[in-house]
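Reopening this ticket.

The earlier resolution said the output was attached, but the attachment link was broken on my side. Pasting everything inline this time so it's all in one place.
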Amino acid sequence: MATIAPFRAVRPKPELAAQVAAPPYDVVSLKEARDLAEGNPHCFLRIGRAELELGDGVDPYSAEVYQRGADNLKKLIADGVLFQEAKPLFGVYRQKWGQHEQTGIVALASVDEYDRGIIKKHEYTRPVKEADRVRIIETHESQSGPVLLFFRQTAKIDQWLKEVTGTKPDAHFVADDKIEHTVWSVRDDSAIQQVIKAFQELPALYIADGHHRSAAASRVRASRGHTSVLPSGNHEDGFLSVIFPHNQLQILSYNRVVRDLHGLTPKELLEKLAPHFELQVTAQPGEPPAAGFDMYLEGQWHRATPKEDPSLHSQKDPVRALAVSELTERVLDPLLGIKDQRSDSRIDFVGGIRGTQQLTALVDSGDWAVAFWLYPTTVEELMAVADADRVMPPKSTWFEPKLRDGLFVHMLRDD
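Inline output:
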């Protein structure tokens, strides 16, 4: 059983939605955030990444930054840029990027079901990022970065979404990155109850993107002593989510750069890879075979195809079948000395949206020694890992397009 609940969303006026909506604050650099917010006082990055308004030396985890974000949120509400709905509703949010389209339900998911594992995870969180999310929720008294959840697609929910999206939307805009955003609202009580019951027939929900957000929501509720479940009236019992059918999601590769070769020469690294991978120079990086990777080393791309079929491990251990596991177990750990990807400063991560050119540029700059472009994890692989109560190596999935912040905000108290 999966529980979802409507909520009294704080939303931008429809004509201001394009100005308010912003990428998640943790996928853009400070410079990118400042560029995006320049000349736009309504940009939601002024809430989620408020240090863009402060000096270059400010600590992004300082009380000053969190409070500036809270003040900016209050100002947008006071100025009428954002308003709170009179009654609880569900939202429907569609994104279109080129030929890819995904449509999800904006709702509160249950913190209790997250704690009990009905909402399934697939990765560990980093304490620093989790604490950052907690501070934002507590200082802002709101949840503004939605968790991206998904469920195994059903015809019943497909039909419900089709009926909603056949009506006139509340807001529609195309962002500067060419991603199209459309939002509907569902206020009809019978339609609300219909989709709640449809979700109750689902055995589980899965976290796609937002492990830190959901973990932070759990911590906030625990700190306030709440133990009830949705729909309870306690705002902390739910966390803001957009929930998609599994067959609509798109996962791009989540790639790696490593600062040095751990004492090896490039030739020695290639020699040590040879027993486990078929290596071939390629002029078309970015299309590695299943469970394989493309590697940029000394100005040249090499394609690495596993000699042993990793899918043979999938029934016993679904984690072993992943390209990121092949890279971790055969390259990063034994050859390059990366024992903990969550904490080692010698490794960094680059989302597939940035292209192979970004990896090439990083290595050619001299700051990094080698780059790896991974075969992307599939949604089916993610579900297999989560269903087995396992976790993937860090940064195994990059979902695209990213949900925009600011289109729906869940307040922890009603005005």
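Reporter confirms the inline version is readable. The chain has a mean pLDDT of 93. Residues 63-78 form the longest helix (16 residues).
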